[in-house]
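User: What would this chain look like folded?
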Amino acid sequence: MPRQRPLFLVGFGLALALGIFLRLPFSVFEGSGAPLHALAALHPTPGFTGIGFDENLYRKYVNSLIRTGLGGYPQIVDHYIEVQKTLTGSILPPVRFLYIFSAYLWHQIFGSEALAALHDVASFCSILTFVLGTVFAWRLKGPAGALGVTALMSVAPTQLHMSQHALVDGFFTFWALLSLWLLWENLRSPRRWQLLVAYIVGLALLVVTKENFVFVWLALVALIITNHWLQFGRVTHELLFATILGPLLGAVALIFLAGGISTLVETYQLSVSKNYQLTYAILTGDGPWYRYLVDLLLVSPVVLLLALGAAFRLDRTQKPELFLSLFIAASYLIMCNIKYGMNLRYANMWDLPLRVLALSQITAWFASFARHRGLLMILSVAAICAFELRQYIILSVQFPLYELVTEGLLRALHILKSP
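Assistant: Here's the prediction, encoded as structure tokens.
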């Protein structure tokens, strides 16, 4: 714990409060009375408050689940197949079960209508991701490092953006980072059954959240393989078994929900094949291998450049930074090769690793400053946070940005002129 304990606690409290406040759904402040009026004025309401195409589909799935109950889920999947066969392009499948089911549970508990429940679940999971990132950073870099990462994550533009829209990607990020963290903990503390069970459950839930689980799982496998040389921790037979068992349990759950393995396979085949014919996917999901780097440079240029700087000075002693860098690299290698399937929403799970790397670079810069090192780091992190919040306001508040695609980002930043 840093020497100035009271200041440290105040800083941590402010960073957590800011991050949670900015992630609250804008609907909380709509029509708010006097007690919330001042907070409503401070909360940056997104410029796009309509209903996106995907959001409308999620709402339909939640409403169908409300009508039929969980036992009727195979009929929801069958209806998707019937509709998808008649379309030239792809629509999102109902096998993204966990997000839909979570909104259904939210509706059952709080009585919210389907779209509001989806918004609330996205916001709630964005807050959970933020808190999880703090815990993860603490385990990786200690309390001082966790404070810096928490501050940077509190205003991460893509994290804030996903918290305000009823989309699965921010929800997926929570389960991806949970699985990544649990792999780290299992490597560092082998054969602890509590950690192994949590890792299995996390992977299973990742599978029933979205088909993008493949990117995360392959990246985790790459980390396990490279552990032979980099020695993040100890790979046991139990850990290997858990890495396979978790996705298998998730796949079995999806088979039951879809009503059979053939139905599940047909659902994925239709979704993937039709995506190659979807005009919107062709126009916005294509690009060169460095497409994600361009998009990240538009949204969080300072963080990205600092993270790249840290990546170029890594050595074998920097286990946390190596672990996170390899996770980004392995998942990036797969994601940048998906035809018509690139979108910055899918890179939401890189926000925490990038900010850990960025803080590492800042720490290296000021390592030789004995007297004012702490103050310089605080000022640097504060300046980056202010810039990141400005980026979010420009992209998602002043400009009605809904999809995080390159053209929209360029227009929001006035690099391209709007038609």
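The two ends are 53 Å apart (CA to CA). If you want, I can go into more detail on any region.
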